[in-house]
Design a protein that fits this description.
Length: 437
Amino acid sequence: MKEEERNRILEEATSENTTPKRLEELATIDEPKIRQAVAANPNTPRNSLFDLAAEFPQQFLNNCILDLLLLEDSNFLAQLPNQALVKILPLPEVPEYFLQWAIDCDNNIAVLAAINNSSLSLKNLDKIISKYKNKKDKYSDRICRDANLHVNKKSFIDNAKQQQIINDALYIATKNYQRSWILKSLQKLISSTIRDRINIKPLGSYVDNNSPKTNTINKYIIQDQKWRLKTRLETRTQNKNVEALIDLAFAAKSSETPIKILEKLAKDKNKLIRRYVAKNPNLSDSLWQQLAMDKQKSVRACVAKNINAPEDILEILALPKYGVRHEVAKNINTPSCGLRKLAKYNDIKVSRRLAQNPNTPSDILQELSQVDDEIVKCKLAINPSTPENILEQLSRTKLKTIKIKLVQNKNITANALLKIIENGDDRILELKSHNPK
């Protein structure tokens, strides 16, 4: 789509004079900015709003038509897709009655999403625990566990057993960087005050891989991964045998699965299974080639992300026609010559991934520092390979997001660090205290 046409359509998507029928058409256009504008337009039909809510929760929540829709239909929130509820309910500005509805409803996904909201009151947390503590199912266990680890459920701090849970959870998070309930809960807990009170290390601290706890904790990780995968499958697939599908997926990803089995799984009709095969570190040359040419973009993306993917495969996937070059740009196994080729593309997604890759050549990082994009600059600010002169240049910024990243970079010069903290807020000063300079 040409720039002139894109701007014309964007103006149409923003206008309150655009008809609902036209907005319904615009909601399907493959341009994120246009769909985002449609999500914020009060004339957008209800069904289109539902479709866009998960992708643009902020715009959905701020749409002025929302209050009217809620008045017209008391069952409005129950009709929202689970994918949308998961994105909307944790937002700090979500109305209180949204959270109250989630707590009282029978939708377990909505309850879990509400628990992820840091402003949920202690009264509501106790109400949730009371409701689910006597139920014997995986959802109820997960709900009670998340509620007990909520930032407002402060009673856990004085409980020795709960402290052990937090210490173990921190161990898992630092070792595996899991985006699960463990890491989300810890992100709410790791403030300097609470860290001192419960005597745990900050995220990212070194963890001994030879610890006797490793095997037990790895079992917890796998259980949690399988639970989350099952949750997604139950809401997105028509396949009734979800448990078998999960077992196949984890067999496909396991480094212990024989090549012959992987060859069969790589031909499975279900793209989920093929995606998990593409995540396996021990594939044969023929399997790498087969999965790199898969008809599904998501499978090719998994190959491009795999740090064990051969260089020649990554070079093929770097071509525009495969649609995953931004994943290749992020892969630390991509050779510098491949990264140089990727830098020639005028693609902001590729530029952002190159800016965060520690193996990107310094001259490319220098070029990227001239790109007028806040995310690119944030990635450069935190990249351990970014040269000092670029960090010095970035330190002159007025943007807080970039400053926060810079003070965490251990390669930043003392002079640049002083410039940043001169007018820094509490968050910047706290992060700076962890920087040895």
